[in-house]
Design goal:
Largest sheet: 6 strands, mixed
Helix content: 10-25%
Number of strands: 14
Number of helices: 4
Order of helices and strands: EHHHEEEEEEEEEEEEHE
Distance between the termini: 12 Å
Radius of gyration: 39 Å
Shape: elongated
């Protein structure tokens, strides 16, 4: 069995218009009819003049394209409104909401990639939801369901992921102790985590990282340990391999035959791309697990 009795856990730091039709009155006096008598030729001439006048009027109201003409003021009122100016400042992409990029110092929609967010979406700051203080980074408070800056000197990056509970384990002399599978994250590109374990029963034991978040890459090393000083390197592994789209293809695994009452130091090194710290709001994350085979 894996026992930890030798180790003391360390504390952590309109519709269109219609034209009306007018009709002459049906009852006309004989005097009107008599005065309206003209020759057939004169009547036809008058019709021709009226038609010509109507056509000229229509030409004045119609544009060259055949569409009704509009005056200058009306044309100005139909112009598209100007695009709003981006207002959310940033220095890197994870200073912005999802689907937005940091361009020229402001958060703007990612051009030409997928459906565009609604107007004003990128002008809002990114937030991290929370239900407890532990869901937020140090220097931030959980208020109204969101991680917010609070107090003097509070961190300006409360939308980013918090560190894990083992973050004091950056050097082997400040190691954490293994009792069960532990979830760790890397807080920087140069971060590494150290864990000590005491194994009371002999057997073939697998030391491994698994359940890697997207973009995480680990390297694992196992050293002998006497409870006081670090011993020899017993095994190491970087990537177990597999399809590139499988996150655990970049996990690490070392299998060792161990004797009764053996102690070991486990070092997990961050091999993730440094770009993940400027593009993702999540820290690289993995689970450290030991098991008998």
């Amino acid at each position: 069995m894996i026992d930890q009795s030798l180790f003391t856990p360390r504390t952590r730091a309109s519709s269109p218009a219609r034209l009306g039709v007018l009709s002459l009155p049906m009852a006309l006096s004989l005097g009107v009819l008599a005065s309206a008598c003209v020759s057939e030729t004169e009547y036809e001439d008058s019709l021709a003049i009226g038609a010509s006048s109507s056509a000229d009027d229509e030409d004045e109201l119609t544009s060259e394209s055949g569409e009704p003409a509009m005056d200058y003021d009306e044309a100005e009122s139909l112009e598209a409104p100007a695009d709003p100016v981006a207002s959310q400042s940033c220095t890197q992409n994870n200073d912005c909401r999802t689907s937005c990029l940091c361009l020229a110092g402001t958060c703007q929609p990612n051009p030409g990639v997928g459906p565009q967010p609604p107007a004003g979406y990128c002008d809002e700051p990114p937030v991290r939801t929370c239900s407890a203080q532990s869901d937020c980074r140090p220097g931030c408070i959980c208020g109204l369901g969101e991680c917010r800056a609070g107090g003097v000197g509070s961190a300006p990056d409360c939308h980013l992921a918090p560190t894990d509970e083992y973050e004091y384990d950056d050097v082997w002399s400040h190691h954490s102790n293994y009792f069960e599978p532990q979830q760790h994250n890397f807080i920087s590109a140069s971060d590494r985590d150290w864990t000590a374990v005491y194994i009371s029963s002999p057997g073939l034991v697998r030391f491994q990282t698994r359940q890697l978040s997207h973009g995480t890459d680990t390297e694992l090393k196992v050293y002998a340990y006497d409870g006081i000083s670090r011993g020899a390197l017993l095994g190491s592994n970087n990537d177990v391999g597999g399809p590139w789209f499988w996150p655990d293809s970049r996990s690490s695994r070392v299998d060792l035959n161990v004797g009764a009452g053996s102690a070991f130091l486990i070092e997990v090194i961050n091999r993730s791309s440094p770009s993940i710290y400027t593009t993702s709001p999540e820290l690289p994350r993995y689970t450290l697990e030991l098991s008998y085979l």
